[in-house]
Design a protein that fits this description.
The chain is α+β, with helices and mostly antiparallel strands. The radius of gyration is 29 Å and the shape is globular. Helix 1 crosses helix 2. An eight-stranded antiparallel β-barrel has the order 19-20-21-22-27-26-25-24. Strands 11, 12, 13, 14, 15, 16 and 18 form a seven-stranded mixed β-sheet that branches. The protein has five domains: 3-129, DNA primase, PRIM domain (Alpha-Beta Complex), CATH 3.90.920.10; 141-303, Alpha-Beta Plaits (2-Layer Sandwich); 329-488, no CATH class; 525-717, DNA ligase/mRNA capping enzyme (D-amino Acid Aminotransferase, Chain A, domain 1); 721-834, Nucleic acid-binding proteins (OB fold (Dihydrolipoamide Acetyltransferase, E2P), Beta Barrel), CATH 2.40.50. Strand 39 and strand 40 (752-759) form a beta hairpin. The chain is 18% helix and 32% strand. The two termini are 34 Å apart.
Amino acid sequence: MADAGAAGSGEQVVRVGGRRLRLTNLDKVLYPDTGTTKGEVIDYYSRIAATMIPHVVGRPVTRKRWPDGVGTTGHPGQAFFAKDLERGAPEWVHRRPIDHSTGAKDYPLIGDAATLVYLAQVASLELHVPQWRFTTSGARGDADRLVLDLDPGPGAGLPECAEVARWARDILSPMGLEPYPVTSGSKGIQLYSALPPGQSSEHASAIAHELARSIEADHPDLVVSSMKKDLRGGRVLIDWSQNNGAKTTIAPYSMRGRAHPTVAVPRTWEELDDPGLRHLLFDEVLERVEELGDPLSPLGFHAGGRIADEGPLSTYISMRSADRTPEPVPANPAAAQRPTDELPIFVIQEHHATALHWDFRLERDGVLASWAVPRGVPPSYKRNNLAIQTEDHPMEYAMFEGTIPAREYGGGSVTIWDEGRFELEKWRDDEIIFTAEGRPGGPLGRVRLALLRTSGSGEKSQWLLHRMKTDADGRPQPDGESVEASEQADEPRGAGRGRGARPERGEGSPHTATAPTPSDLAPMLATTSTPGIARASAGRWGAWVEVKWDGIRAIGVWDGRRLHLRARSGNDVTAKYPELTAIDAGLGDEPAIVDGEVVALDAKGRPSFPRLQRRMNLAKAREIALEAPRTPVHYFLYDVLAADGSDVASLPLAERREILERIAARAAAPIVLPPVFEDVDAALAAARTFGLEGVVVKDPASPYRRGRRSEQWLKVKLTRTQEVVIGAIRPGRGGRSGSIGSLLLGIPGPDGLQYAGRVGSGFSDSTLAKLTAVLTPLRTGENPFVGIPAADASDALWVRPEVVGEVEFAEFTPDGILRHSRWRGLRPDKSPDEVVRES
């Protein structure tokens, strides 16, 4: 949901998109019939933000608030409409005034996730917007959407609304006003169409009114266009009046204040043909968007194609379509909110387009100011290279690598040549001077550069990229390696250090030319134990108890400027978690290697492995950039392997902790050093209270034994979980026909992969789709199991036993079969030979 700070179970201080916000009463139930809490509502709005904002950005928001909850059908809760932004709202919430008879009221504008989270915090469950946006001067703009609200009267329902929607579509489509349906989450269906530029709200109302009367004339038994209630029995009202500039409609993806937490959801026309069409709950909507995307996206930010001049990224957005390019295409043209207390970033991307060139991008005012440099960074002050300024790019582009389709703008492959941070000396319209330092071992090194404008202005202006003769302190700068030369080198590009790089330091540290080996980064492992054994061991050692976090293990390599992460498997997962690795982690000026857990928190601030699944299986930069704001992660530290250029693994744990506390003293907000408990029973009680996975009891005198499982670390689990190897699929039936019904599981033993039962619950539709994609290529005709019963094997579709997952379960039977197992997720950080039976 957000970067969380310390607070009680009902209160958290969070950072959302760089905004600090206090959330309170998170455990308060707002929907009694379903037990849905305020924390879950906030979580929904934070995760749907990227999808919802294109449909509300620039529009004044009228809210319907339920501070004490919606109540029940028999006893509904008190609600009230809020137009004016309440006193005490954060200053960063954007607002625009609208004159009323009682004076001007400041309406909130939603352009970022932080504002959505704030509105949810004050129990604004329903968000209503008009069919126009503000102009840049703050005036009411023209209508950009046409809306028809199909409202069923007594005796009618969604099937009747769907029939009327199809009749409306038959009229609107030939007019060039292709409609998109939305089930309102209340009773009926809304249809939205994009209007061409220059349409007034009065004109839109007239079109809608005439359309409603036309459909009523053709179908008088089912359709009514009059608001009179006595005419509506068994009919569907086509409410055309919501196109009036003073009226609003429930926003797409807004929750509803009904007894159940339904949502106004964009649907496909195929769905409207389903006789079982129904309104969807908020959790179903999150899964749906993750799997299907947004059917209403053509009417999002670009509705009517009208406001592309309202932000620094408008040119970038106008040149790209998110459904045709893997590049990040933000819905909002506004610049990103970036911390001001850290050095800005740069990235140089090698771009094999029509002609090979290098894209040089510098962070400036929340965007990436960009230049195309045909010959790259000059290797010497004796040579200047042409640079052509291009459109500003979004901050997310700093992580982009991929292939842009051939027919799209900039078609070709893009890879990151080098990246890092820069120190700015001067930024004028015609001259920029800065010192850039690339990643350790990268081709750029540390170099002072200048961009000098020679002709033109703005986009397509021509500049020279110049390598300065001296650094910022007046010392001569060594020559670097030209990018053309590095293209022809025998070693892989980026593997060697440019001659302008800083000298190596710290023997054996991440700053040395020899990077840490996989064995250097192999984590120490704990042995499964019982509370009694752990309690007795703590009595001998002296109590040292840590919480067992429900995440994935990660070794962090800190080079003094950037954190790199390695999974337990040894895979580099740095790019997966940019909120940890693309920032200054604040771990000091000297290199270090730390040990910890990457964790995703739920709405109550508790570790959630299912939430983490949304991140750990992503690989594409664009997917990561989209999901990171919805499902942020933390890095919980608990050990250190190397510090200040020295290996400290042989030191006792108590001494390593002192070193770790010094290193993490000024760590960035997503990096947390949790406390150590001094009482096993108290730690277990706290873990039970907060629904945590368990605890780890450690010997304070223990050294760090890389890659070894030690009885000086004892893990005590409260939730029984087991890593398993997937060996087969059983086909689904009924509602899962054509999909996965269950998975057949095994645990490696002395005789092979010992059959351990099956799991058929805990799967969402998106999880089943992911599993199908992963397992289908592994299909084989060979049974991988030892000891599988004939009944379970009868319809099994065997797969090669290469994929590891994790389940919750009640107990093992005497035959080693998992009872009451439930799927938790894939474990791409584990290999099958690492899986052992938990005692």
